[in-house]
């Protein structure tokens, strides 16, 4: 076996103020193409040029290449360093490797999991149970790349994808909950990572809904953070498969549920995030939506009438501070926020699902609900 290592690939072309990157699927396709060329006796293609589904033609520099020197066991392996651009992607900087070996005549293209790439163990994902967690988009990109280098024909080869260290990285993702064990998933529909789109996170939310539906679960819980998730789990004695790490992506979850409904949906979160939802925001990230104290004041004015008290929020800067002031005056701000948040969420899913809202403070105490 011979091994050589070369510098990491060039960064993707900057097309916006925030730099775009490449998906693990695009990196796997480029690595597979380079390995196929070497396996075919033409040497490692470097840089590797791909045609992505949208017509873009990026070039990837190889960071790793190796091949067998045993003629009875031929294989070739290439690796690409993933550049996720300015997106906060856990796989940024990871080495995505593809090892190709000949398959039986007429077998076509087969995929296997190597180190750090997971295997599907639960139904509901777009890949069958027992298969390597390489989603349809990357499989199609790899197939197209190899066809383009094989006279338009699908070659008879086995593609083994690996990401060294991927099993440890996967513990920080939703893969264990989705039933993907042993490592990461190879993802990416377009091949391009849009900065701060957090497309992989939204993808995980969608796959979590798919798994819940496939298992016949009729109640899912989307939470903005770990504390609210744990509190909601205890409240409902909910199984792992019903829990969705929604984060800031309320819109990403609700819009998918409108098309792929589950009878009951609970949204659980802190007073700040759910105030934004109550205001009508579907992206709850602090950089893309803010709490409007004037909005809370209008809710409080309605609550004061019921409580028979007068409350001044002019010195309040945050939703948490407003909550404390309202509790002292017996104004149920948590319930008022929950009711408005429920209206926002229910309008997105229409009649496809019934939406509940749970509002928690920073200690995990339930301070408001609408159900």
Q: Kindly estimate the percentage of residues that lie in beta strands according to DSSP.
A: 15-25%
Give the biggest beta sheet. 6 strands, mixed
The neighbouring-strand order within the major sheet is 1-5-6-7-10-8
What is the H-and-E element order? EEHEEEEEEEHEHHEEHEHEHEHHHHEE
Number of domains: 2
User: What is the CATH C-level name of the largest domain?
Assistant: Alpha Beta
Can you tell me the CATH architecture of the largest domain? 2-Layer Sandwich
Radius of gyration, taken over Cα atoms and rounded to an integer in Å? 25 Å
Kindly report the average pLDDT value.
89
Any idea what the CATH superfamily of the largest domain is called? CbiD-like
Q: Span between N and C termini?
A: 63 Å
Residue stretches low in confidence (pLDDT < 50, at least 5 long) are: 1-16
Number of strands: 17
């Amino acid at each position: 076996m011979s091994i050589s290592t070369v510098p990491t690939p060039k960064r993707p072309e900057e097309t916006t103020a925030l730099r775009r990157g490449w998906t693990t699927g695009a990196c796997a396709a480029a690595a597979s193409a380079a390995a196929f060329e070497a396996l075919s006796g033409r040497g490692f293609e470097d840089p590797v040029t791909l045609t992505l589904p949208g017509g873009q033609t990026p070039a990837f520099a190889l960071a790793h290449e190796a091949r067998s020197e045993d003629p009875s066991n031929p294989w070739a392996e290439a690796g690409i360093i993933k550049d996720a651009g300015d997106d906060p992607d856990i796989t940024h900087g990871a080495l995505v490797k593809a090892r190709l070996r000949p398959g039986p005549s007429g077998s076509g293209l087969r995929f296997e999991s190597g180190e750090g790439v997971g295997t599907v163990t639960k139904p509901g994902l777009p890949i069958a149970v027992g298969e390597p967690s390489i989603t349809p988009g990357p499989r199609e990109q790899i197939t197209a790349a190899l066809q383009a280098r094989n006279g338009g024909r699908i070659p008879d080869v086995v593609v083994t994808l690996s990401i060294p260290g991927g099993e440890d990285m996967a513990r920080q993702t939703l893969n264990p909950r989705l039933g993907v064990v042993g490592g990461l998933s190879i993802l990416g529909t377009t091949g391009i990572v849009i900065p701060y789109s957090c497309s992989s996170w939204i993808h995980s939310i969608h796959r979590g809904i798919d798994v819940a539906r496939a298992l016949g679960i009729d109640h899912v819980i989307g939470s903005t953070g770990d504390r609210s998730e744990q509190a909601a789990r205890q409240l409902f004695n909910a199984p792992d498969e019903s829990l969705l790490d929604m984060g800031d992506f309320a819109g990403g979850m609700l819009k998918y549920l409108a098309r792929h409904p589950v009878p009951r949906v609970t949204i659980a979160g802190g007073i700040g995030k759910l105030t934004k939802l109550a205001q009508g925001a579907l992206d709850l990230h602090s950089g893309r939506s803010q709490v409007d104290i004037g909005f809370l004041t209008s809710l409080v004015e309605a609550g004061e009438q019921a409580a028979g008290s007068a409350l001044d929020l002019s010195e309040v800067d945050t939703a948490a501070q407003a909550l404390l002031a309202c509790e002292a005056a017996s104004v149920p701000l948590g319930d008022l926020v929950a009711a408005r948040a429920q209206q926002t969420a229910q309008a997105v899913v229409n009649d496809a699902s019934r939406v509940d809202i749970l509002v928690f403070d920073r200690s995990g105490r339930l301070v408001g609900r609408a159900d």
